[in-house]
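Module 6 notes. Inverse folding takes a fixed backbone as the condition and produces residue identities as the prediction. Think of it as a translation problem where the source language is geometry and the target language is the twenty amino acids. Below is one complete input and output pair. Work through it position by position during the lab.
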């Protein structure tokens, strides 16, 4: 059955089951009109499907024009939001930092240039920019500008080291409560003041020459400091590729097991996290400078813990780079659900003029203060990380709707925030959902997914052109994620069809 056919089947269920008692009845709303009552019955019918009965749903729909609640079930129940937590983080970042905020990365020389040689170290001072990498070729542009500047200053050789100063961020790189078995994957990359390629590399696994032989493994790009121990073998032609990764916290050794078919048409690709982002950054820069013809005699390394070893007055600024503004960074954060960006923004919230290092705990405090000012019930928002990867995060649909409503009605915040959200049937994590339905192009929302969690929250435009804010969160279900998504999509299609 096609996706659209499945949606139609769910819609048919709603139509035929509307007269039955719902397992998740909506709260009675005073002054309900016939059209709103019909909407409530239809959503009740979707949630009444017996296959959904073991899960817990929190749903809230509110008009952004009148403030009326159109549908509500378990709206004040705390649930795990998964990546819907990024709505919370971005709202706080936009309010506190502003959409024009940029990260600056500076390059300093610790000694003069003598006869074409920089006689000291080249120090890169980071402030958390998550956008320098290979995804859009930005690292080639940035490193290229730095190499050109060094050559303009007459540098043909660097006698010292390439040193990364990452002291602007706390040493703890991982989010609070992250599961250890997530850590090898790129979506669980830690964050720091210096970040390259989103602190992730790609491991390519190819079959060996015969059944039972060791699979071939290579890492791209090089220089990540990862050592790979592979027990992956070559399996019979036509068999399914099945590969597994394991890496313990703080270790650079990645273990790969499983198998790949002898006749695999292309290498299997595993996107894995890098444990030491600072070393990854400066090693990439060192390799780039050498490739550009600058002889680097020293090695790449990170500055020791503690205050910066190179006081700014005693060093010379060689070059600097400003990231795209927060409004642009937010697009990658939300469209593809980039966890690293979210964790970076959370820590950046805590930066102040006092020069204190950026911390997740400080960011959480700032976020809570913001939402207190907005009138969001603190009991409905338990924030432990910025991305939603932590299973210690809990929110209510009511808290999310409160945040979305505030953003919508604040002209400073609304435009870039809404533009960053995936559009149904068009782009981001909703690019392949809701195509050919009434919701296509009329739903802008953030998805959320992890084991036994699915969520979708954002903005909807009804058939009358009325703007709505909605939040749909499902936890602890025992059916497949596809079934949950179909039920969620049936609800938002109904919102897009709603008219007064």
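Target side of the pair, the amino acids:
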């Amino acid at each position: 059955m096609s996706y659209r056919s499945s949606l139609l089947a769910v819609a048919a269920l709603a139509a035929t089951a509307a007269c039955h008692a719902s397992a998740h009845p909506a709260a009675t709303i005073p002054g309900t009109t016939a059209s709103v009552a019909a909407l409530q019955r239809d959503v009740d019918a979707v949630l009444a499907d017996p296959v959904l009965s073991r899960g817990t749903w929190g749903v809230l729909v509110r008009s952004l024009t009148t403030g009326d609640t159109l549908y509500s079930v378990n709206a004040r129940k705390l649930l795990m939001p998964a990546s819907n937590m990024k709505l919370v983080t971005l709202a706080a970042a936009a309010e506190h930092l502003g959409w024009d905020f940029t990260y600056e990365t500076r390059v300093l020389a610790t000694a003069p240039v003598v006869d074409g040689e920089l006689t000291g170290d080249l120090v890169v001072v980071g402030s958390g920019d998550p956008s320098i990498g290979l995804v859009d070729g930005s690292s080639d542009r940035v490193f290229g500008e730095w190499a050109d500047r060094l050559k303009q200053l007459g540098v043909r050789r660097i006698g010292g080291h390439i040193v990364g100063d990452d002291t602007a961020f706390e040493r703890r790189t991982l989010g609070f409560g992250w599961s250890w078995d997530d850590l090898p994957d790129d979506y669980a990359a830690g964050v720091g003041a210096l970040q390259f390629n989103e602190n992730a590399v790609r491991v390519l696994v190819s079959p060996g020459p015969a059944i039972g032989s060791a699979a071939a493994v290579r890492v791209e790009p090089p220089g990540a400091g990862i050592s790979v121990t592979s027990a992956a073998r070559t399996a019979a032609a036509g068999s399914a590729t099945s590969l597994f990764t394991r890496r313990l916290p703080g270790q650079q050794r990645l273990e790969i097991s499983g198998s790949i078919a002898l006749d695999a048409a292309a290498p299997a690709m595993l996107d894995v996290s890098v444990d030491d982002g600072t070393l990854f950054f400066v090693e990439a820069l060192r390799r780039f400078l050498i490739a550009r013809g600058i002889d680097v005699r020293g090695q790449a390394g990170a500055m020791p813990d503690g205050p910066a070893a190179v006081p700014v007055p005693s060093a010379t600024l060689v070059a600097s780079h400003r990231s795209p503004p927060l409004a642009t960074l937010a697009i990658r954060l939300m469209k593809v659900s980039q966890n690293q960006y979210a964790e970076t923004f959370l820590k950046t919230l805590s930066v102040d003029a006092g020069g204190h290092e950026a911390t997740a705990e400080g960011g959480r405090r700032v976020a809570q203060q913001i939402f207190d000012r907005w009138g969001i019930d603190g009991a409905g928002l338990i924030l432990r990380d910025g991305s939603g990867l932590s299973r210690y995060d809990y929110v209510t649909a009511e808290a999310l709707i409160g945040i979305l409503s505030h953003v919508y009605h604040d002209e400073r915040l609304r435009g870039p925030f809404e533009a960053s959200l995936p559009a149904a049937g068009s782009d981001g994590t909703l690019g392949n959902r809701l195509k050919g339905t009434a919701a296509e192009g009329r739903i802008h929302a953030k998805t959320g997914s992890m084991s036994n969690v699915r969520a979708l929250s954002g903005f909807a435009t009804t058939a009358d052109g009325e703007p709505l804010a909605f939040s749909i969160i499902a936890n602890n279900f025992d059916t497949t994620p596809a079934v949950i998504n179909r039920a969620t999509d049936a609800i938002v299609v109904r919102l897009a069809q709603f008219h007064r």
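Reference fact for the lab report: Residues 241 and 260 are 4 Å apart (CA to CA).
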